[in-house]
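Sorry, explain these tokens?

***
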Amino acid sequence: MMQRIELPEVERAVHGLRLRGHALYLQPRGRPPLGFLAHARGARPVLPERTVATAATIALLESAQPRALRRAAPLSASWGQSFALGSLRLTVHPAGHVLGSAQLRCQADGLDLVYAADIGGAGTRASSTAEPREQLTCETLVIRALYGSPRYVFAPREELLERARAFVEKTRSEGRTPVLIAAALGAAQDLVKHLGERGLVLRLHAAVYRACQVYVAQGVALPGFARLDEEGDAVLVPPTVRLDRLRLGETRICALSGRALDGPLPGDEAIPLSDHAGFDELLEYALRSGARHVLAIEGHADELARALRGKGVQAMALREHHQLDLPGI
């Protein structure tokens, strides 16, 4: 007899992932009346009419997307302080992904759900510029599985940052310009901090420079960064930049991304530096949450859900268009 599977407390709706029976979108797309923004990285140019986010996320959006933010009526949420929104009680907790990144606890009659969104690493894999990730417990856990495949297990962050420093030093000794390619939020600030504390000044693309200014205003110490047209020891740009337009002379390029575990990336060297938790950390987080139901979304959701079911947890993968990956079906 097939085991009966309970449907989750979330659903795919016209504007993204929504709490079933409530107006709150956890992963909003377009402009719904109410949505939660877990972090500022990759934020869409159109935000919900009312957007729940942390103060740091709002500050980063104000710097990068001021027009979108002005139309969003942001609702600033403080760490660990519950507040009511309609019939829901909501609380944000640090996710450890980038500065201001948050997990959202949603409580109501019969509902105890944590939307963990994009959690970062912990312990030796934790970011030095994001708030330390909190481990939450709940009845239902919704977690993004970007690196939810067993092949994504990352080395300690210090080791990877040291590899970036060695790349910079070696390239400079050859008389060439070191170019680091990394996400404008998260990896970029960890690189600025690690290399800056070792006497190296990074010349930053405008998007990275603005983000670093917000980090500093939020109390994160970031020594050793300058504008792209100023003096420095290495250049740091996001992946979207066309390097041929920067006129940097003779360069060596190092790409920093968790995708480096998939194989070579464009450039001379690749380092698997990720702001997201790897497979083993996602698995451990879900198990330690004590959740009776786990819903894995996006990325390698199928593989993470399968691994959790192997540990005795009722887990499912939610795909686009309302499709659920149910065991036995």
In short: The helical segments are 55-64, 66-70, 157-173, 187-196, 206-217, 279-288, 301-310. DSSP finds seven helices and 20 strands in the chain.
